[in-house]
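The freezer alarm interrupted the setup, so I double-checked each line after restarting. Inputs confirmed:
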Amino acid sequence: MENRGNWKSKIGFILAASGSAIGLGNIWRFPSTAGKNGGAIFVLAYIFAIIFVALPVLLAEAGLGRFTQLNPVGAFKKIAPQKKWYLIGFLGIISGVMILSYYSVIAGWTVAYFLKTASHTFSNINAADSENIFSAFLQNWKLQLFFFLIFLLMTAYIISRGIVSGIEKFSKVLMPVLFLLLILLVVFSLTLPGASKGLLFYLKPDISRLSFKLFLEALGQAFFSLSLGMGTMLTYGSYLKKDDNLASSCYYIAFFDTMIALLAGFMIFPAVFSYNMDPAAGPGLVFKTLPVIFSQMPLGTLFGSFFFLLLIIAALTSTISLLEVPVAFFIDEKKWSRKKSTLLFTGIAFLFGIPSALSGAVPFFSKLPLFDIDFISLWDKIWGNLSLGLGALLLAFFVAYIWKAHLAQKEIFIRESFFSKIWYVLIKYVAPVLILIIFLSNIFTQ
Ligand code: PHE
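Predicted 3D structure, all chains:
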């Protein structure tokens, strides 16, 4: 049996888990979802979802992992043997591979955009040029498949080399650099003419946009961004040693992740309004807006290339966490070797990612019959939103009522405190109830 390995330090867990959390979810998905859902009102709903639902679930998920020191299926089996709860783990494994499939396609876009920026494609362009470049790129499915494959292979290479040396090394230095670069871009974006319209959109809530659907989107985004509801944080928690302070690590992770998402909004929206672009443009929003920013900014080619490079790395530390879940499962439960499991799941993710890579070029995938949306949006809705929400709901219920909240509390918190008491109430009564209400209200108000 292969050694599962441990994080070398508490900071190793914080960095790797933040590496998983911070990715395209913050910089690509957050601004486009906020833009589609009315801006500031979405931001409020999102912060609410993070504090009252996602953060308590993060503690629960990582706590379950550390307590059992197992993969998502094994963890449920250990606490409830002979019961069907381990199916939650299976749902997570499937979600992970499916998210990996389309996520890597978008990550492939960032690789292409890095090369475009570095080769001066974006010098002296305006908003219309940038939109044309993006549509032309979406039409080119061969190129997308190519970059998608490159990205998956990079992920597979790191995963096949094993946990500590693979993951820890990559996450350490680069996330703080991304943070600093984001701040620089925010400052530039805020100085653009007409930036204040973007700020208003982002900061002044329009109450009339409030709806159950908005809360569903905010909740889904919160789970997606914190990598919850599919066993990633459970798996990472399982590599933690017993004496690390789990709760405080999780506060850091949620804080960093939320900061990066909010900064991404401050970077995108002032520019979107300054260039008269459409904030509700959907998945293409960031890829249409950033090139114009880089084209107008002093030293834009340099900063732009560097930014996309960091985004590639941020996406990579997320995809490795997506692939690690099924791989760890096969190592633990099926006693497969790391290499063989990596090969299998990379293959599956590639096959399921093909329709996403074709989704801009092939009319069938651009507007799916029945759903009226493109394949990436559909896959993101099913796996990135609904399935993570369901996984998080079941996990919260499991921890609170099957494992039992007071036992979980002992695992997560070193001693009883104000926060440990609040967590107890949130995980038992608030988080599961809110997720359920939001799910049901969306079913009944369709
Ligand atoms: N949290 C990652 C991001 O924001 C995506 C992710 C989701 C990773 C679920 C793992 C599990 O980019």
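Quick read of the result. Residues 375-412 form the longest helix (38 residues).
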